Input
Amino acid sequence: MSNRTIEDALKDRPQRLSGKVAVVTGASKGIGAEIARRLAAEGASVVVNYASDRDGADKVVADIAATGGKATVVQGNVARAEDVERIFATAATAYGKVDILVNNAGVYKFGTIQEVSESEYRRHFDTNVLGLLLATKAAVSQFGPEGGSIVNIGSVASRQTPAGASIYTATKGAVDAITRTLSKELGTRKIRVNSLNPGGVETPGTHAADLIGNESEKNMIGMTPLGRFGQPGDIAPVAAFLVSDDARWITGETIVVSGGM
Output
């Protein structure tokens, strides 16, 4: 979904995230970028985090500014505690607080059990699990007495458990479990924690993983009752809903957005 389309869709609606500050990790491209744009379109000030793609992150910030929104960019690898501290220090300096965290940063590489290696295991778990925990820890320390909202981007893979994805699926199963655990731990502080689990979505990552334009794409579409690959614009509105007051009675849930996959 383009910025123009988002603006058209929201121009006559109240900005339900007005006054809120959101940190979106891994927001330089794909689902994270679209979530950042959507939250800004709904009134939030957005901290756009990236690990390596500065150009992509700058474009997201420019897109937000072009439609009258507020955003700032910050580099940081969520698997490193010092980087996470910098991300949230940037949020505090720019906007004075944090109300929303979207844990979107993630990596994936598929392979058989014979291809499992220590380095790939650590790369996946460091980003997809440890990074989520470190960012959540930092966000919780900045949430005020009114609480906050956390959305963890999981995957339908945690339920489908596809062959050749043992490490990736393990990390996303961990995300589901962490979501439920933290919803119980943080609920008394008015902090909601939910997981948003997409199905097959066309992003730069799925192109790089060679999942588009071949039999892999056909197979995934064949498992999807709505008959197409998803787009980042299919995911972002659900994230915006989950962090808004419209979802004030929803926590500890795993929301699958997959076209029925």
Observations:
- Residues 118-142 form the longest helix (25 residues).
- Residues 222 and 228 are 8 Å apart (CA to CA).
- The chain is about 45% helix and 15% strand.
